[in-house]
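To assess whether the prediction recovers the assembly geometry, we first specified each molecular entity separately, as shown.
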Amino acid sequence: MTDRFVHISHLTKRFGDHTAVRNVSFEVPRGSTLALLGPSGCGKTTILRCLAGLETPDGGTIEIAGIPVFDSAQRIDLMPEKRELGIVFQSYAVWPHMTVAENVAFPLKVRGMGKAERLERASRMLDIVGLKGFEHRSATLVSGGQQQRIALARALVAEPRLVLFDEALSNLDAQLREQMRLELRLLQERLGFTAIYVTHDQAEAFGLADTVVLMNQGAIETMGPARDVFRRPATPFVARFFGLNVLEATLLGRIEGTPYVEVALGAHLTTRARAGSGLVASVGDPVLACIRKEHVRVEQAPMPDSYAGTIEAASFLGVAEEYIVKIDEIAIRATRPAAGFARGDSVHVGMSPDDWIVLQPGETA
Amino acid sequence: MNTGAQGRFLQRALPIAGVTIGVLLIAGPFLATIIRSLLVWDGDSVAIEAGNFLRLFGDPRFVSAALNTLIAGSCTTILALLLGFSLAWLVARTDMPGRSWLETANLVPFFLSPYVGAISWIYLLAPHGGLLPWLARTYLGVSLEWLDIYSMGGVIFVLTLFYTPYVYLFVIGPLRQMDAALEDAARVHGASFWYTLSHITLPLVMPALLSAGLIVFVTSAGLFDVPLALASPRGIRFMPTEIFSMVQYPSDLGRAAAFGIVVLTVTIVLTLLQRRFIANRRFDTVTGKGYRPRQIRLRTGGKIAALTLEAVYVGGGVILPLVALLMVSFSKLWTGRFLWRTATTGNFEYVLTKYDLTRTAITNSLFLALVGATWGVALAVLQSYYLTRGNPKRRALVDALLSLPLGIPGIILGLGFLILAIRTPLYSTLTIILIAYIARFFPFATRTVTAMFLAINPELEQSARSAGASWLQTMRLIVLPLLRPALIAAWLMLFVIFIRELGATILLYAQGTETISVAMVVLSERSSGYVAALAVVQLVMLLAAFAIMRLTRTSMSQG
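The predicted structure of the complete assembly is given in tokenized form:
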């Protein structure tokens, strides 16, 4: 049984001639988390702002906890303050003219709670986010990471039904970001709020959300459980967004009774590969063959079913090394633990049919 | 090497020279006023004592002038803050119809002469022969006779019209650049629109409002033009007009200087307080993400209210005075209404071609504005170089010193230069007026140029030096071209200020060195037609400068 807590249906938002969000629908079950993932300008932040009531959509409906907060047909558009949400912005938006405690207690103050009680609850919330004892500091005199925690405490203090995160971790440095990601996940499980995250960072999306919605140019490109979205890219856009090799190929034939097809990349490289969902190409048609960089094995010695290639470029990344390997005229990117190959070295390249996925070329290049 | 040492000498000496001239221009009249305020003549012998101050404080005219000035300054400040913030907020944050046009219209009073504004409002609202009471009586059957422009209320009204753009300019930037998330977060977390405006937006622009409030208070309280036109005829005393009458025959320079010192002390204390306050609360309102603040959609009622406010402000500050001024300038004899059949261009012919006083005044004003603006900008470039590239330890002090004249009333500085020049050949020359203008107003130019200088990466100059250019060549080929928009803006600003200046000139002019503003004061006793025609001539010069400023700003944003 899914208790659909947030339900967005046929949401459309235009800015002048530009359609920022195009007919988007999805739902979020109570107590679950969803990430809106995508490159900048894909419309993910606009969806979040429509949810919060900070933008007025041009069409569609938004329902939170069974109550319509926006409905273009019925002319319902609840003010932001009537939606009872929490929000954390990328810039933290901590008010510089208030103390830490005043910032956190603000949602309780505007709800009419007495001073003693709201400061007490703000203190408890600050304790939870790890800022015990910061109550009377000036909000601008703390570090970025601490401002982030203030913003989080402020978003949670009134126990809102839904908490929105707009690129909430993007301004933190890498180490702090990872730490906050784990803490946020734990906090969400402990307090049980429903959360929607907007992010351009796939690690953040996968780390925080049960469901991932990948957006492209205002529309949903793919959505589903985080693992599925990542493991089986649904479209060439998804494959490119997750950094897979996406190579032009020709469909040679389907292998009856199996999910496999045969494709040719260039003149000499042919391989068996998994057919992606929605592959409708017939024999001889152009398709796209995709493989994750980590799945391209580069070795000095030949392996079974491997191809001879040459290192075109090598870059040292610390733990791993990234190579561009040329097999005839085909250039493939590969990542592996540092092996010290240099440009011009002859190597052998192994790729398993199960790691290849063949997709229908779309109009989005 | 000889040339190397020479280059280095210029690079250090020229900016220091600029700063030194600035400091001398301020210190000269300042010290002269202090010394003069302590000198008391008794027959032929001079004593240093506090007699001037004692006589001043014991004088009921001083008390009433000080009190009236405080009342007018405070009321003007409060009204200008309310009006300036409202107008800036409407233009920056709402979808008020015509806001791109109104954005410029709200600034026009900034460029007009307060003296001309005051006399235009006399034409409009004088108890006898005012245009508006006549219109109201004839067409609406309403009596407006109780509205008297010659009053404390009239002074505050006209001052508010002219000082609102200061507030507007100070807060429109912060309102535009503020991180939208600060307000959005309040809304999402349960605050209503009005609660957010009063508890988030307003506190965030408070530093800008306080700065604007201080500047409006000290400059409006120190303005000579409006009390001269609206308060003096009824014998209502104000600080600037009181100092002016102390300098008139039989003059009492000592008492005037003592009054000047009182005003200077108040001004400097206020400025220091404001500096401390601003330094204590630096609000970082720059957005991390860079989406612009949400535009607030006004309902029909809101739009009507917004446009009414704009109509009152632009109507009262620009359109009505302009209409009245044109009517009077084309009337043979002003009787409170315009009659087409007696319309004449005679006033213009007279002031432009026939009358020596006005012809000289126009020439003098143009000379002072053109030469003064050029010298002022040259000085500003050198000072800005020092303030952005000079000795980092001394910069803050130099900046504070050079900003002093910003709050000093023109009449006080004029008094200082009068005391300095009185028994020298400079007395009653255009040169002393020119020096006083530059001394009073160069900080405006220095501020503008410094702001732009800060935006120029020093590496651009260092690259030029590495490429083989001398310091002078670098200034000429790299720095000055990059500064050009600021130089134009600063020059035009000084031009506008100098064309309409009255407070300092009124103490320093003599026969033959009258300016347009002085000629208007002199003629105001005789013919409103000549005054209005002269005001229109001045207005054309001011609006031309304003138009050039808007045009160059457009090309700046396109380039």
